[in-house]
Structures are given as C-alpha cells and as structure tokens.
Amino acid sequence: MSDAAPPAVLVEGLRHAYAGGREALRGVGFRVEPGEIAALLGPNGSGKSTAFRILATLMRPAAAAGPSGRVEVFGACPWENPHAVREKIGVVFQSPSLDGELTAEENLRCQGRLQGLRGASLREAVGLGLERAGLVARRGDRVRGFSGGMKRRLEVAKAMLHGPELLLLDEPDAGLDPAARATLWEQLDALRHGAGATVLLTTHLMDLAARADRLVLLDRGSVVRTGTAAELVDAAGGEAVRLEPADGDAAALADDLRGEAGLSRLRVLPHGPRPALRLRRADAAAWVLGLRERWPDRFSRVSYGPATLEDAFVELIEPAAEVEPAPPARRGRGRGR
Fold first, then answer.
1. Residue 253, SS3 per DSSP
2. Residue 198 sits in a domain of what CATH number?
3. Structural domain of residue 284, as residue ranges?
4. How far is 218 from 224, CA to CA, in rounded Å?
5. pTM given for the model
6. For labelling, which of 82, 153, 315, 333 has a CA lying 20 to 30 Å from the CA of 127?
7. 3-state SS class at 93
C-alpha cells in the first residue's frame, strides 16, 4: 500500500446536467497537487463555475444518465462528506460578501467568530489576515470606501482565517485592473509559500492564468487540454500572425492564401469588432513584409510575434471557423493582386 499523500483535488469523469437536460460538465477530469496554484480556464459557459460549486460543497452533481463521476478534496468527497471538505477549504465567491458599513477588521472578526475563533486565536488570525492582505493601515476604515482590489484581497483574507489547506476562488480577477490583478497574484503566491495553501481558481483572463502552475482548459463542459502555460503555448507552435483585411472579408482573404507553402493553422476569426485571419508561419517577419508589398492596400492591421497563451486559448477554445476548401468559383474573388 502506498503512503503517498492524496492530491489536493482529484476529479475523474465528472458529469452534471441541469434541469431540462443541458449538460454543464461532460466527463471532466483533472488533479491538483498540494502546494500548487491551478486555474480552470475557459470562456463563459465552459463549466468552470459548475465545477467550482461542486468542489465547494454547494451542489451535488447529477448526470443526465449514468454515474456522476468521482471528486475528492484531500481524499474526501464533497457531497458524501461535506463537513470534512469544508474544514479544509476556504471559498471566495465572485459576488462580494463584505459588509461595506463595517471596517476591514470588523469584517474579519465577524467571519472569525462564524468559524469558531475566539479570544487570542481570533485576534491573531485577524492580525495575520490584515497583514497578508496589505491592509493593516486601513484596518479601521469602512470597507465601502475601498477599491475593488482592496476588497478582493480582504475577501481572500476572510476565506483564509481558519487556516484551510485549499483556497477556492471563482473569477477573483473579475472587474480588477491589471495592477490590482498583479497584487492579488502576489497575495495568492504568498499564501502558497507562507501558509502552505493550495489554490484553485476559475478565470477567463490570460494574465492571471499564465502564472498558474497548472492550467485546465475547459470548453462546453469538457477538458480541452491540461498543462503549464508554457506547454500550452508550445502546443500552439510557431509565430502567430493576425491579418485584419481592410474590407472586413476574412473568408475571402483565407481563400487567396490557401495553398501557400509554409502556412499552418489557418483560421477565420469572425467574432469581435474586426474580422481577422489567424495563422502560423515560421518566418513570420519576412513573410509579412512580402505580403504587404504584394497587397499594400489589403490590410487594416497586421501583427505577428511569438505565440502567447492567448493564442493557445484562441486555437483550442475560442469559437472560430476552420477554413474549409472553397468552391472553384470563389477563386475569382481574389482582390488586390
């Protein structure tokens, strides 16, 4: 028998369907090791929040047919043994849970009492929480005057008052500016190193996800890929080129480029304010220069560079139309040549 410690989070074959039969989770599986910061990354409707609620003991999975799968938090099942799981987790919801009329210290004291802390233990936990949130100097100020980033850091401090082993956060970066997101990450990293906490968060923003030790990409209830940010970027491959045609007809541009040597992963991106064509090219700089010389008036914007996590996200998750072979008649629509 192995003496190895169980993973902080183990999910295998997780399925859930809401009333009416809509499947939110379709056999999801991933694991998070103790001490890791992991992120469930995906667009709205990918199943992130449903998985979060199940892990947080807020709902029991119900498959449309067959078993619902296996979920463990440090070896305990959230719906079969919720009390054991709740002792080990701290939860930060996307919706605010602070009382704006109370001070930062009073918010923490109220939460501590709900967690059963009293006397010296409560004072110590509140003081440590304020220090970790960087709010010692604002401990006596009412929360209603705090910035979004300060409120989010206080939410994290509340969730960590009882010393949980796992911190769950649902879209903690929502509504925060880049500076506030960077400060939030510093707080989470400090909790990992200082308190030995494992962190699992949901997000659809790249900058926070890119710093995680492990990413789980979800789309329409299924795991698309798992790995580090670097592994996902490597999977994207080559240099990313984005071409925005001046006339907005990205499909016609794709037709004109189809069959050209050296191109890969040609995709029409019809969404967003400006339709575009995304592709991969090993010698992107020289190729783009030649393209602009060949069609000087064809593009409103051209960009290229090393593939990023956002490129990987677009390749693997974001709705996009794969370029299919065009009918011969469409070749007559080539322009700018």
1. helix
2. 3.40.50.300
3. 237-333
4. 6
5. 0.82
6. 82
7. coil
